[in-house]
Amino acid sequence: QTANQVEFSLYRLRGICYNSYMKLLDPAGHIIFSVSDYKKSKLFYGKLFKKIGYKQVCDSDTSSAWVTPQGLGFWIKPAKEKLPLHVHGSPGINHVCFIVSSAEEVDSLYELLKKDKVRSFDAPEAYSQYTKNYYAVFFADPDGIKIEVARYSGE
Fold first, then answer.
1. What are residue 115's phi and psi, to 5 degrees?
2. Using CA of residue 149, residue 75, residue 48, residue 86, what is the dihedral sign?
3. CB 51 within 8 A of CB 112
4. Whole-model pTM?
């Protein structure tokens, strides 16, 4: 192990997944969501990100994180204030989109969402008004934040 790996391991033992070497975990930057029910959100995002192939880089009692193949980190942490929950369309984030490589992956994820009784806004469908090859499903995370998983290209 390198010195950086050893120091990171020590931080993990204390339940902290980030330190001065955060760039090693998410070199393209990160997004952090504060969640009202950490255990429920950790399970939800763990299944989602495993299904779409993101690597988990942190798993502790105080934060969890996954990184895209391009290095963008998506972190969750327990919220200090549990209310109000997010209301789609209010100021703040509108939705978050995660890209997959095929329409079949979108469909497969939708089946998992149905099995887990996740609130979906619609079944997967083509959105040709965006691009010719746009295919997506929209659903809500446990706090009501709209999530999109899509397959598209600029063609």
1. -60, -40
2. negative
3. yes
4. 0.81
Instruction: pLDDT band for 53, please (50, 70, 90 cuts).
Output: very high
Per DSSP, what are the bridge partners of residue 92? none
How far, in Å, are 8, 51, 53 from residue 124 at the CA level?
A: 40, 16, 19
Whole-angstrom Cα distance, residue 140 to residue 155? Answer: 28
Q: For residues 50-78, give the mean pLDDT.
A: 91
- Cβ neighbors of 145 (< 8 A, separation 6 or more) are 33, 86, 88, 93, 95, 96
> Percentage of the chain with pLDDT > 90?
62
142-145, long-range: CB < 8 A, 24+ apart? 142/35, 142/36, 142/37, 142/40, 142/41, 142/44, 143/33, 143/35, 143/36, 143/37, 143/41, 143/85, 143/86, 144/85, 144/86, 144/87, 144/88, 145/33, 145/86, 145/88, 145/93, 145/95, 145/96
